[in-house]
């Protein structure tokens, strides 16, 4: 609907130019009218073709823009999911490091209180496992 005036505009513009040319060249009236009729029909067809081409190009451009927008949204969603996964892994790594640090502290305390004097290199089976929760985090004495 946006392009429905294109054929009429092109046709009338070509007709105006033909009339001016006929007056300047001093053509006879019958020749001028025949030329005007032929020009109007030809340029109406040209205008129809131009209108359809312009409409098709505009619709393809809109389709490409929407496709690009969807692709960008999918890419942003993928990047966000990757960032969340990276943050989750970092949190889990920090928790594991903290748990390991607390385990070492607990082993040192156990060794000090049970006559070891320092951290032992061997694993002690009598280590107080109740000082840790089910995830391996130190919860205290």
Write the layout of secondary structure elements.
Layout: H1 6-25, H2 29-113
Q: What does this 3D model show about the protein?
A:
This protein has 141 residues and is mostly helical. Helices cover 74% and strands 0% of the residues. The protein contains two helices and no strands. Helix 1 packs antiparallel against helix 2. The longest helix has 85 residues, at 29-113. The two termini are 80 Å apart. The model has no long low-confidence stretch (mean pLDDT 86).
- What spatial form do the alpha-carbon principal axes imply? rod-shaped
* Contiguous uncertain segments of 5+ residues: none
Oligomer: single chain
The total count of strands amounts to: 0
In brief, what are we looking at here?
This protein is mainly α. It contains two helices and no strands.
List keywords for this structure.
single chain, 141 residues, mainly alpha, 0% strand
